[in-house]
Amino acid sequence: MKTGTRALGLAESYVGEAGRSTLAGAVVRADRVVDDFRFSSCTVGGTGATDTAVDCWEALDRPDVRYVLVAGVALAWYNIVDLERLHEATDRPILSVSFEASTGLADAIRREFDGDAAAERLAAYRALPERHAVDLGDDTVYVRSVGCDDPARVVRAYTPEGGRPEPLRVAREAARAADRYRRDPDA
């Protein structure tokens, strides 16, 4: 992959206040140069994470971005991201990267939600593509992808060290910083 190939990393941070989770979008080149940021928020426990991700994409207006990486699929307390819809909105390959082996979220969704709220999240969760393990040397990540022929190659290209692709690491740090600022702008 060329060093200037850009990816948008989307990650969230929630500190337990105000019922909103901060979503950060970070544009990062394969050579780790950070190009741009966008921020938005979605309701914790809601169903608008996909809309928020699309809003970040549209606000960036960066046709040079070639990939979109999302930190997981259940942002802001089971706010499931529709990877197909995000792919359609961006016309880019979408890769959802999670960092732990898991038996899935279905039991947790059933435990945390009832009735229609559980059914809606379970339907969205079951519609997701399967996860596949990607070996990163000392680490393993789990990737779901839409519109990407070789997700392992993309994840490895953006993971120079450690177990977190750089666009997701930068987006996570930016979301955390934005949350700290929102909590206490004078700190």
List the helices and strands and how they pair.
Blueprint: E1 6-13, E2 20-29, E3 34-43, H1 49-60, E4 65-71, H2 75-78, E5 79-80, H3 83-90, E6 94-98, H4 106-112, H5 115-126, E7 132-135, E8 140-146, H6 151-157, H7 166-183
Parallel strand pairs: 1-4, 4-6
Antiparallel strand pairs: 1-2, 2-3, 6-8, 7-8
Helix pairs in contact: 1-3, 4-5
Protein name: UPF0215 protein MBEHAL_1821
Family: Belongs to the UPF0215 family.
Region (Disordered): 159-187
Features:
about 190 residues; archaeoglobus fulgidus dsm 4304 fold; seven-stranded mixed sheet
Task: Characterise the protein shown here.
By secondary structure, the protein is α/β, with parallel strands linked by helices. It has a single domain, classed as archaeoglobus fulgidus dsm 4304 fold (2-Layer Sandwich). The mean pLDDT is about 95. The longest helix has 18 residues, at about 165-185. It starts with 5 loop residues before the first strand and ends with a helix. It has seven helices and eight strands; from the N terminus they run E-E-E-H-E-H-E-H-E-H-H-E-E-H-H. Helix 4 packs antiparallel against helix 5. Helices cover about 35% and strands about 30% of the residues.
